[in-house]
Amino acid sequence: MKQKLLVLFSFVLLVSMVLVACAPAAPADPVDEDEDVIRVVHLVNGVLGDKSFFDSADRGLRWVVDDFPQVQVNTIEAGIDPARWQAALEDAAANEEYDVMILGTFQMSEFLERVAPQYPDKYFIIYDVSVDYDLGNLDNVYSVLYKQNEGSYLAGVYVGLMSETGVVGVVGGQDIPVINDFIVGYEQGAREHGVESVIVQYAGGWNDPARGKELALAMYQQGADFVFQVAGGTGVGVFQAAQEMDTFAIGVDSDQAVIIAETDPDQAEHIPTSMLKNVDNSLYRAMSMFIEGTLPFGEAEFLGVAEGGVGLARNEYYERITPDEVKETIEQVEQDLLDGNIVVDTVFN
What we know:
This protein is α/β, with parallel strands linked by helices. It contains 13 helices and 12 strands. It folds into 2 domains: 38-146, Response regulator (Rossmann fold, 3-Layer(aba) Sandwich); 149-277 and 314-339, Rossmann fold (3-Layer(aba) Sandwich). The protein has helices spanning 2-22, 53-67, 85-95, 109-115, 148-162, 177-191, 209-221, 236-245, 256-261, 265-268, 279-292, 316-321, 324-339; strands spanning 38-44, 71-77, 100-104, 123-127, 141-146, 167-172, 197-202, 226-230, 248-253, 274-277, 300-303, 310-312.
């Protein structure tokens, strides 16, 4: 009898174990899928598609998304009308879901100085300008600036070594300190390496290629064989003029020849190099540091040649168009900048 009961008990126990094993698993504790998400708003006070400054910023944030899956980026293009930019910032700060807001250019710094203190639990990154930290309550803002005078010095050295006429030009977007910082570095490098005349003109805006072309054509007609564009979307017209006149232009911010080659390979042949303001690298660096918890909010940082913030593009056009002796000189000048042997003029004290 005991043996039968033991067999029956064993059978019941076995069936119970099978039923338990086959039963659906108990629901796990709810997981907050948004817990580790980092929401980023990139507010562009302009439009993408300039193949230069804002496209560089956008490219850097796309690199961030590729390498850090927890980061989500929402880009807002505020348009080219400056009258809309303050309202766009205030609206985005109040109504968007974000952990970090990223924006750039000198036109936005005063607006951010008023907005950031209203959202102390949010973080802000501003590029190509610094907020005025002496105003206080800006401990949630990180500013990144670039030593564009150093990068432009390299561009000036390049045209000085390459120019056959001794005349070069530069088209600036506006007569403002940051653009003039490009120009003084460019002019210094050019004059120290053989250029006799640097023609400077300002377009008065950032999205007028026709104006850029008009100014560049006038420079080429005055004997310039290289024109440096520091004018955002307006600078597209400088490239058109170089192509039409069968001479050369220098790009800015991004490696513009490589970008333009995708749609107009012939025009790219007229852009032997670009002065790189590596907004893409700087924003990737900033977001990487933010994720690590090491980004120094409440401070501004300057990135120059030594920090990889600026430089000169070396691509297939540079390699093909540039003589070896010019390449060697550029390498030496770059090393001299790294070693502190060259002091580049700047409009900033």
